[in-house]
Structures are given as structure tokens and as C-alpha cells.
């Protein structure tokens, strides 16, 4: 293949002279295999961030239950003290909490002897009542 430059000169290019590189747009990841090309949106939306935060809280509750040697199938009441915005996030994701934890109820109030946990930079105090 011949390419004409702005100067008017002609340059002959071969396959070895050309490198074709596929690149995703900003905030996208591109993965290429022998028979596929995948473009993944890596933007973290507010909804995804909140769901991730709730999943980290679920993990903390499960760890706390284990430390208390509670049977896996025992229904408990969970008491939580956290910022109001975080309480609202937990209320919005109540189904996810219920699906992953065996709860009677979640109460947003303090109890004596609450345990303090830090989840993604947020302090959360919890108490489990069996």
C-alpha cells in the first residue's frame, strides 16, 4: 500500500509497518480474544456503589454472627447505628439484606455493647440480638 504524505512524498507501507491496536474509550475496558471482543463499562454508578457498600455490611454482619457462634439458621434482630444516608441505603436494599442474612428485623437504634465496624470508611455500630 502506498501513502501520500502532506509534503507530496509517497511512502510504501507493508503489513509489518502497520500496527492496529483496539482501545476502549475512557471508562471502558476492552478485552479481545481469538473469536470475541468485549467492551465493559467501568463507570461505577451510585447504585453500584451503594450495592457494594450493602454487600460489605452483609459480610461484616456474617463475620459478627460467626464470632458470636450463632447457628447459621438462627433468626436474629439486627440493631444498627450509622449515618442517616447509610440507613436510607440499607432500607433501599432491604431485600438484599433479607436474602443474605437471616433476620427478624433491622432496627436503626442504639443498644448497649454495640460493636463498631468500619466499612469503606464509614463507622457502623451493630448489635445482634438472638
Automatic annotation (TrEMBL):
It comes from the Bacteria. Pfam families: DUF5915. GO terms for molecular function: aminoacyl-tRNA ligase activity; ATP binding. One of its GO terms (biological process) is tRNA aminoacylation for protein translation. InterPro entries: tRNAsynth_Ia_anticodon-bd. Keywords: ATP-binding, Ligase, Nucleotide-binding. The keyword Ligase applies. The keyword Nucleotide-binding applies. Signal peptide: none annotated. SUPFAM superfamilies: Anticodon-binding domain of a subclass of class I aminoacyl-tRNA synthetases. This is Isoleucine--tRNA ligase. The gene is ileS_3.
Amino acid at each position: 500500500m502506498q501513502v501520500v504524505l502532506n509534503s507530496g512524498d509517497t511512502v510504501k507501507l507493508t503489513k509489518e509497518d502497520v500496527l492496529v491496536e483496539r482501545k476502549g474509550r475512557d471508562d471502558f475496558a476492552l478485552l479481545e480474544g481469538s473469536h470475541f471482543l468485549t467492551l465493559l463499562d467501568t463507570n461505577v454508578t451510585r447504585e453500584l456503589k451503594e450495592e457494594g457498600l450493602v454487600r460489605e455490611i452483609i459480610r461484616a454482619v456474617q463475620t459478627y454472627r460467626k464470632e458470636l457462634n450463632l447457628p447459621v439458621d438462627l433468626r436474629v434482630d439486627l440493631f444498627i447505628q450509622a449515618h442517616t444516608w447509610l440507613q436510607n441505603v440499607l432500607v433501599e436494599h432491604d431485600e438484599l439484606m433479607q436474602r443474605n442474612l437471616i433476620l427478624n428485623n433491622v432496627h436503626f437504634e442504639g443498644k448497649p455493647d454495640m460493636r463498631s465496624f468500619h466499612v469503606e470508611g464509614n463507622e457502623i455500630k451493630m448489635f445482634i440480638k438472638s
